[in-house]
Amino acid sequence: RILVSLQDFNDLFLISFAERFIQNNNAKVILSDPNRLLKTNMIFSMAVDKINAENTQQLQLHESHTLTSEFLSTFNLVLVSYSGWKDLTRAKQSWLLNTPSVLILKSKRS
């Protein structure tokens, strides 16, 4: 199980990584979307709809702002963008202490 942290509009590229994990490893992916990007941005929602159409039951949405240690313990990997990681560490998010392996990715555009 993989948690993908979507922090802002620049994190769209993370959805393509989620899709690759689903296609190549049959992974279950949870999109953490506390800012509700999927509901407010058509490009985000279209990207997720495309994945759901091709891979039913592989992608889920988590909109809560709180990530508990129990919730995080169910994951093998967390994907986060470099800018998102900077924001999370700057805000000293307590859930970071309980994360499994973290893959920090930087967009080609950044």
Question: Can you walk me through this structure?
Answer:
With 110 residues, the chain is α/β, with parallel strands linked by helices. The chain contains 5 helices and 5 strands. The chain has a 5-stranded parallel sheet. The longest helix is centred in the N-terminal third of the chain and has 13 residues. The chain is globular and about 35 Å long. It starts with a strand and ends in a 5-residue tail after the last strand.
Task: Give me the count of strands.
Answer: 5
Name the helix and strand elements from N-terminus to C-terminus, one letter apiece. Answer: EHEHHEHEHE
Sketch the major β-sheet.
5 strands, parallel
Record the strand order, biggest sheet: 3-2-1-4-5
Please tell me the overall pLDDT: 88
Strand content: 15-25%
Please work out how many helical segments DSSP would assign: 5
Compute the separation of the termini in Å.
Answer: 27 Å
The secondary-structure class comes to alpha/beta
Tell the overall outline.
globular
Radius of gyration: 13 Å
Low-pLDDT residue intervals, each spanning 5 or more residues: none
